[in-house]
Every structure is written in structure tokens, then in C-alpha cells.
Amino acid sequence: MRGPSTGQWHGPNDIFEIGSVTKVFTGYLLARALEQGAVSLDDTLDAHFPGGAPSFNGRSIALIDLATHTSGLPDYPGNMHSSDPANPGAGYTQQDLDAFMAAYPLTVEPGSTYRYSNLGAGTLGHVLVRTTMTADYEALVRQVIADPLQMNDTRTVLLPAQEPRRLQGYRNGQPSPRLDIGEPLAGGGLLRSTALDMLTFLDAALGVGPAQAVTTWGTTLLPRRQSPHGTNGETGLLINIEDHAGGRLYSKNGGTPGFSSQITLMTNPRIAVVLLANTNGTQGLMELGTALVDLLRSGGGGSSSSAGGATSLAGTACVPGRQVPCACMGGAQGVQVCRNDGSGFDACVCGTASSSASPGGGSGSSAAGATSSSASSGASGQSGIIDTVVSLDACKQLSHRCQAGDPASCGTCQYRVRYNAQACSASQPCDNLLLYWSFMVCDGASVQGMLDGVLAAHPNYITACVQPLYPGEMMPVSLGAPGREAQVVGALFSALKDAPNAVWTGKNLLHAGCSYAASRYPVVAARYPDDAQWLGSMKSAACFSDGVVSVTYQDSYVGQGIAAGGAQCQERHDRIAEAYTVLAPTTGHACSASPQAQCACDPNHAVRSYPNDCGGGDCALFDSIVRPAGTGFSLAPGVTAGSFAVPNWRIISEGDSFRTTSDRCARDVVPEAPFKTLCDSLEADAARTCSFVARPTAAHCTDFLQNIGALCVDWFDAL
Asked: 595-610 pLDDT, tens per residue?
């Protein structure tokens, strides 16, 4: 492929970050240590962490648990301290890992639950380094793999002579910083390598190379435990195994903020594919790796030789300027052009026609009442991008405040759908839907830029921005109108999943959001069990930044500002009070007489009484899901981890305004402690996972929108 910064063609000796494909090297190192008798799969971490290692009901974590993602450890340790949001693991030390292991409470028995863990793989690499008494992870890789196989460009730290061949990585089209991970986590994703080195490594898996390497690959590929990957999914030593086309497919993908990687192989017939890209986003490479294996199995792969003799996938000789047909997703046909130097064909160029069809082929009408639809084609400048905006009944702009006499549906807004028509079509629906709950608008530059960035990195995703918010102060409102959210989501799902021209299979669903809108889904999912029927997905997750999970705490936070003489805080409270909305207030309470039943009269919400409250009485149909409890927080009464329909969670606390109190009357950010409590409660449930990421110096919401691919989509792909 051509590099976006230099315009030069990437070659077999250009150096990429390979991310989590590093884990396959770690699995191979474990296999070699097993063969040498240096370790046993039943060895536990206790001997390697003198200060203590996690256990559950007396069961300690064993090496087999680390190698099969069944350790129960989180994705990343909770005590990373880097101030660089692009490299949160930078500077992480052995002492940091020792301290984390000594304090971390497991919530599931090791070996019982598959839970992907970068920390687990990194810890395994670290244990192997300690066991073999080598200097560091790179030294062990070089000793066991790179030097014997003459893989001279596979390292964690490049030599000065190699630096000119190191490629710049790109995240969402922008240059990304180089990956930096502390040594104890290196085995989870720090290696750099080249296409040539990677093919040399995989040759041994296919039986070509030194006898010892071939044997060790056999140990690495042995199935060990079940996994959720693919059909009859299993895992070897940090490599995925699945049934495919009558054979066994072995694979692993990797991603860093600026690179993507994929290895896919079959041992019968002997086929290996290596895909490396200097841009983020792994899902497309996973699918391409499998497709190329199938193509090579069918005998349609062609060959590659010296300049002038290269062939296209169709087997046509590369003559400078020659155009040959190639296949695009969805069955469309594209064109490959032979490069002027005859060294090979350009990537397949697919059709450039834009479409104005809406997803679902019309207005997106459903029982929820969608009434109008408009579409603008190619708004992102990308070829074949469908961009559809659907407004529902009585949709009002944010400038409109619902008044007495407005219909009950006042405040219901819109959804906006974007997808690549070449990847997602009625004949070949996509599996993945990113549902972003917008805190303000769906057509703002930041939100549209985020959607474009996700589509650029993940062309097989459908992105939908949903704005079901009530005009006015939006923070608490995201807690209070489940009927409206059900309406807009019902219309959206009907268009994408149930319509004759549906473009989404309904298989995989990722909820995301930032700040006040972010809490809409977790709160509604906890308090309104009927929301579970929205999902209908094989895989579902929620990834959000901040939000309002504790109305009580937010009210207290604002109230302290009033007590301190904050003039703005009174206005803020008045706006919050006006915006609290219920559709069916409890009969007999004072709030039932207020316009549109707007009030904040639930005494459980108000830590102190404010002027203009509606006089007391519990009229709200919504509530906090986390409340203050002593010096900390706990789930609110009636809320349990089992209340949540979504099984997998990532919560990002960003922005540092909660660390100061001078601007509490203007800021929307609330302290991170309620989110950490929510995540810990979810993580304690064996059926759910939650990773908490603290980014206290990040630009609030802006950072989330810019990095949603790395924070949410890449994480979701790895589930």
C-alpha cells in the first residue's frame, strides 16, 4: 500500500507496530518454556508476586488462565499513571504491577470465564522473563524466536539503523504518537516487525523452518479452552482457533493507536496471510485475512515475483498501466491498475457513486411514528457513504422549550445514520452498529467528524447518532424519558434491521456517549427492564465518558455552590428543575400541576431544599443509579448489576474540572468516584465485565469524540 505521508509504496521490510499480534509471540514463548520443562501450565502467579497475587475462593491465577484470557484480570491495570492519553501504559514498572496484583480483588474464579485481557498477556510475558532470568521481553523474543529465525527487524526498541524504515502511524487520518508501554506489559502488544519477518515466523507454523520452531508452533496451536471467537471457537496459547470451511483457522489481530495487524493461517492446506497497516482499525483486516485464505484455498490467488512479473488476485500479469477487474464488498466490481514500475497492482478501486437511499428504503416509519426522512449523499467526501437524517413526530430543535399545551412527544428529536454502501447493503447486511447517544446535536462538526473517522477506520460499521433529548438543561433529562428513547430506537432499529432493505443484521451493537447523554443508556437499562428488548443482539456493550449516574451527587455538587454564594448555581438549579420531565406524574403530588409535569420534587434527588421547588412529593419515574454512601458510593436501592441488559462495559472518566470547585456552577463534569463505583459493581457480577479508564487531563468530550475508535470500537471488536 502507499504511505499517506510520503506517497511511497510500503515494502516487505518497512517496520510496523503489530499491537496484539505480539501476544502470539508470548504464547509461542510459553510453548517453548513448557517444552523445556521451565514452567507448567498449572503454575500460579503466587511465586512471581511476593506481595501477593489475585485469587478467588482459594483459586489462584495459573499460566493457562493467562494464556487463554480466562484469568479474570481486567483489560488494563487500574494503576496506570501516564499523563499521555495516547500511551496510558507508558512508564508502567514492575513495582506498579506488583502493587496492582497485591491489591486486585478477582470477581470470578480463574479459568471459568473468557475475558480478553491485555494485562493478562503482558503479565504472562513478564512471568516468562522472570522465569528465564532474561533482561527483558525483547531479549527473550530475540533469544527464542528472532535470532534463530533471522527475524532481524522484530523488536520492541528499534536500532538507529532501523529507524528510517519505521512507518508513521495514523489514527482517524491524523499522525499518531509511537506506542509506549511499560516493560511489564510488553508481552501484550509492544513488538514492531515487518511483513517479511512475520511471514518467516508463520512459515514455521506451516512446517517450513527449523525443526524446533515447527515443534513449538505445534504446541502453541493446540486447543486449550473454549472462546467466543468464530464457530466452535477455541483458544490455543494466545491465538484464536475456529472451525472454517471444513478446516481449522488460526488467527490473531492487533491494533495500536496508529497501526493494525492481522495474521490468519491454516495448516491444512498450508496457507498463511499477514496483513499490516499503518492506520488504526482491525475489523476489516480480520475479514480480509479470512477472505484471502479462502481465495488461496480455491486456487485463485495468483503469484508474486520480480518487478514486471507480479500478478493481480485474478492471476493477470502486471503490465504497467493495465487495468484488471477485482471484487468489491457486496458483490460489486472494481478495478486494479498495474503500477508504472510493474511491481504490482494498486489496491482495488471500487465504485464511486453515492446513493441517497435511506437505510431501510424510505422514511424509517414504524409504530413509533417516524414521519419524515431526508438524505444527503457523500457528505463526508468518502465514496459511497450513505448519510440519512430521520426526524420523528413533533421533533423540536434545542432552541424550543416545551410549554404547557405542547404534545406529550415534544422534545423527541432525530437519528442520523451513516454507512458505507459498498460494505453494508440489503444483500449483504453488516453486523456492527455503533449507536452514539448525542448530548446536543447529531449534525455538529465534532459528531460528524467522529462518525466519519469511525467509518474510515471501520468501513463495515453502521454509525447512528441518536438525539432524543428534551430542550433545556439536558443532564438529568437523559435519565427521565425512556418512552422517547424507545420511540427513536424503535424507529431506527426498524429501518436498519426489520425493513425489507435492512442493512444491519442486528448481530453486534455498541452503545456510546459522552457527558450528560452518556448516562441515558446505563440509567434506563438499570431502571427499565423493558429496554432489554431493544438489543436483540448477539454481542452488545456500552462505552461512555462521564455522564450523570448520580443525580443525588450532582445536586449536592451544585448545592454546595449555592451555599458558597455561587450566583450561577441558582440559575443552574432552576434550569435543572424545569427540565426534569415525567410523562405521567403521580396523582396528588404538587408537581402534577406544573407545566408538562416538570419539577425536581423528589426528595431523594434534592440534598437540600431550593426555592421554587414544587413543594415536595415523589413524582419522578427516574432516579440515581449510584448514590453517596458514607464516605463513598453504592448502587441505589433497587439497582443491581443484574438490572443491566448490556453485559460488557467500558467507562471513561475524563476532564479534570471535578478536581476543583471554583466553576462547579458552570461545569457539567461530575467526580469520577460514582463511575468507578458503577464499574466495580458491574465487574463484580460474573455475567458482566467493566473496565474503568481514568483520563483526568483529557479534553472533556472532545477527546472522547476524537478517540472513540481506539476507546470504544477497537475494544468492542476485541470482545
From this structure: 444 444 433 333 223 3
> Of 45, 44, 113, 121, whose CA–CA distance to 76 is shortest?
121
Rounded Cα–Cα distance for residues 163 and 186 (Å): 20
Amino acid identity for residue 567 in this structure: A
The span from the CA of 610 to the CA of 570, in Å, is 9
C-alpha 356/C-alpha 599 separation (Å) is 43
Phi (first) and psi of residue 69, to 5 degrees: 55, 40
Query: What are φ and ψ of residue 592, in 5° steps?
Result: -65, -20
Which helix (H) or strand (E) segment is 569 a member of?
helix 567-579
Under 8 Å CB-to-CB from 170, ≥6 apart: which residues? 4, 176, 258, 278, 279, 280
d(CA 66, CA 79): 19
Q: Is pLDDT at 368 greater than 60 in this prediction?
A: no
Helices 118-132 and 22-35 pack at an angle, to 10 degrees, of: 40
Reduced to 3 states, what is the DSSP secondary structure of residue 354?
coil
Tell me what pLDDT residue 696 has: 76
Residue % of the chain over a pLDDT of 90? 34
Please state which of the ranges 153-167, 220-234, 409-423, 501-515 shows the lowest mean pLDDT.
Answer: 409-423
CB atoms within 10 A of CB 83: 12
User: pTM for the whole thing?
Assistant: 0.48
Q: Are 205 and 273 in contact (CB under 8 A)?
A: no
Cis preceding linkage at 674, omega within 30 = no
CB 107 within 8 A of CB 683: yes
Q: What are the residues whose beta carbons fall under 8 Å from the beta carbon of 134, sequence distance 6 or more? A: 140, 143
C-alpha cell at 293: 485464505
Kindly provide the b/e burial profile for residues 542-551, where b requires at least 16 CB atoms within 10 angstroms of the residue's own CB.
Answer: bbbbbbbbbb
Q: Pick the closest to residue 535 from 504, 514, 503, 499 (CA basis).
A: 504
Q: Which amino acid is at 49?
A: F
CA distance 620 to 551: 12
pLDDT band at 313 (very low <50, low <70, confident <90, very high): very low
Q: How many angstroms separate the CA atoms of 613 and 335, rounded?
A: 67
